[in-house]
Amino acid sequence: MKHAYIFPGQGSQFSGMGKSLYESNDITKQLFEQANEILGFPISETMFFGTDEALKQTNVTQPAVFIHSVAAFLNIPDASPDMVAGHSLGEFSALVANKTLEFADALKLVSIRAKAMQRACEMSPSTMAAVLNLADDKVEEICKKVWDETGEVVVAANYNCPGQLVISGSLKGIEIACEEMKAAGAKRALVLPVGGAFHSALMMPAKEELEAAIHSTIFNTPICPVYQNVVGKAISDPAQIKENLIAQLTGPVRWTQCVIAMIEDGATHFTECGPGKVLQGLVSKINKEAITDAVS
């Protein structure tokens, strides 16, 4: 029996997030104050008292979710993960939990990532869409067909759980793909309220900027493996962790595969650390026997 700690990504933010964690003990209070200093603005104030609109800004959202997730993990008495994983942005929180990255270094990378992604979004207007109840291989087939026939970027981006796959691409490409998904039998193909085509080739400008920052950051040997998004399996080598983290920006989030691999490697208990309980739900859909809880 092994205990996995999992960390959510962008989209789980909410107004008031982290306030109770800030007030809970000196360790988490210092964490928030350190974050304010590193970022050069009082992000804790935005998290505690900001509007939902303010929290939707990518340069705020990603650091906010990251800070909240790490604080939630540190607030668990004697937390001792056997394995960790994070959904997209959450992979940075996971790498702090397994001591691959220091909090300060990880936050700097998250901030660089957020700003670079925002610039990439502004360069190429794009979006994402959730496709429900259509086989993964059929979704992949339609994405390839649309891209080949129209030249519009469309890819499978987030393998969240069986029957729930998010696609990513240009505005026109996603529009065409959604119609084809529904014609192929998808229960729904719904465009999401996101700022860009995350985990697609349209993030390439951001990838190049993040790559330089990651290569100049120290990655330690972790205390336990991280199940990384782009490969869907356990990784413990710091050099490989770096390369997979870079590839993640333009590659898919294989969350289903990560959870299956963790269970095959002995995970029976999953604790979600951070705002919301989305990952709990996904784990339960992937394996109904898994024990799940959340610390937020």
Walk me through this protein's architecture.
- By secondary structure, the protein is of the alpha/beta class.
- The chain has two domains: 2-121 and 202-295, Malonyl-Coenzyme A Acyl Carrier Protein, domain 2; 125-195, Alpha-Beta Plaits (2-Layer Sandwich), CATH 3.30.70.
- 49% of the residues lie in helices and 18% in strands.
- It contains 13 helices and ten strands.
- The protein has helices at 19-24, 26-39, 43-49, 52-55, 58-74, 90-97, 103-123, 136-150, 171-183, 204-215, 238-247, 255-264, 278-286; strands at residues 2-7, 83-86, 126-132, 154-161, 164-170, 188-191, 226-228, 233-235, 267-273, 291-295.
- The strands form three sheets. A four-stranded parallel sheet has the order 2-1-9-10, with helices on both faces. It has a four-stranded antiparallel sheet with strand order 4-5-3-6. Strands 7-8 form a two-stranded antiparallel sheet.
- Strand 7 and strand 8 form a beta hairpin.
- Helix 7 runs antiparallel to helix 10.
- The longest helix is centred in the middle third of the chain and has 21 residues, at 103-123.
- 49% of the residues are buried.
Describe the structure concisely for a colleague.
This protein has about 300 residues and is an alpha/beta fold. It has helices spanning about 20-25, 25-40, 45-50, 50-55, 60-75, 90-95, 105-125, 135-150, 170-185, 205-215, 240-245, 255-265, 280-285; strands at about 1-5, 85, 125-130, 155-160, 165-170, 190, 225-230, 235, 265-275, 290-295. It folds into 2 domains: about 1-120 and about 200-295, 3-Layer(aba) Sandwich (Malonyl-Coenzyme A Acyl Carrier Protein, domain 2), CATH 3.40.366; about 125-195, 2-Layer Sandwich (Alpha-Beta Plaits), CATH 3.30.70.250.
